[in-house]
Amino acid sequence: MNNPQRTCIACRNIKEKKELIRIVRTKEGEIEIDKTGRKNGRGAYICNDIKCFEILKKTKGLDRSFKSQIAAQVYDKLIDELNLL
Question: What's the whole-model pTM score?
Answer without folding.
Answer: 0.89
